[in-house]
Amino acid sequence: MKKTKNLLIAFAIVATVSTFLSFVDNERKSESSAKLDQMVADWERAKTYTKAYLDASTDEVINFKPTPEMRTFGQQMCHLAEANYGIGSQATGKAAPITWGALEKSDQYNTKAALTKAVMDSYDFVIAAAKEMNEQKMTEKIKVFDKFEMSREVGLTKTFEHQTHHRGQTTVYLRLKGITPPNEMLF
Predict the structure, then answer these.
(1) Rounded Cα–Cα distance for residues 105 and 21 (Å)
(2) Is the separation of the CB atoms in 56 and 177 below 8 Å?
(3) Would you give the end-to-end CA distance of the chain in angstroms?
(4) How far is Cα 124 from Cα 157, in angstroms, rounded to an integer?
(5) In Å, how far are 115, 150, 154, 163 from 158, measured between CA atoms?
(6) CA distance linking residue 110 with residue 183, whole number of Å
(7) What gap in Å lies between CA 135 and CA 71, rounded to an integer?
(8) In the chain, which ranges are continuous DSSP H helix?
(9) How far is Cα 125 from Cα 178, in angstroms, rounded to an integer?
(10) Residue 142: phi, psi to the nearest 5?
(11) Which residues of 99-137 are buried (b: 16+ CB within 10 A; e: fewer)?
(12) pTM, rounded to two decimals
């Protein structure tokens, strides 16, 4: 009788611990899913914000270079798009449809329509690739530029940081041409 009672207690403890661990695992997966959903939402918001900058520009602004050493507005946006493809590709493992320099060095993107399409396509690439990610893939280690080791999640974060930086630089271009830049879209 005592052995049966001890076995029942042991079984109850194992069942309780198992249930608790299952609950913790489900909570962790739920948090991870929410984190991925937030990352995608942030990229979609960034795309909308960048589109507002492109919409505010003109063909004149796109070809404007504040100083001889600087990129034109269009080259800044092409550089942003190339990094979305390049670093985004390394971060997600999805092959990029363009190579570094293909946009910025091309003369195809000196109109508002062509530039907007190229830049928006780069956001679509990152957003689609991010939607294919999962918790396990996000933790995989990668090397960006064969130099910087990080997780895929950090790689996507660095890509996001880069596009924010270059979009921010274009504020000056708009202001120098008398255009008020779009209001911040933080949320």
Answers:
(1) 54
(2) no
(3) 64
(4) 16
(5) 23, 10, 6, 9
(6) 25
(7) 38
(8) 2-56, 59-62, 73-92, 112-131, 135-139, 152-176
(9) 32
(10) -135, 170
(11) eeebbbeeeebeebebbbebbbebbebbbebbeebeeee
(12) 0.82
149 beta partners: 143
Closest CA to 60 of 180, 182, 181, 177: 177
Domains of the chain: 37-176 (1.20.120.450)
Residue/partner pairs of 138-143 with CB below 8 Å, 24 or more apart? 138/32, 138/36, 140/93, 142/90, 142/91, 142/93, 143/90
DSSP class of residue 148 equals E
Contact (CB, 8 A) for 144 and 155 = yes
CA distance 24 to 57: 50
In this structure, the chain runs to a length of 187
26 pLDDT exceeds 50? Answer: no
Q: How far apart are CA 131 and CA 122, in angstroms?
A: 14
- pLDDT band, residue 43 (cuts 50/70/90): very high
pLDDT tens per residue, range 45-88 = 999 999 999 999 999 999 999 999 999 999 999 999 999 999 99
Pairing relationship of beta strands 148-151 and 141-144 according to DSSP bridges = antiparallel
Q: What does the angle CA 41 – CA 110 – CA 102 come to, to the nearest 5 degrees?
A: 70
- Tell me how far apart the alpha carbons of residues 28 and 21 are, in angstroms, rounded to a whole number: 10
Q: For residue 69, which amino acid is it?
A: E
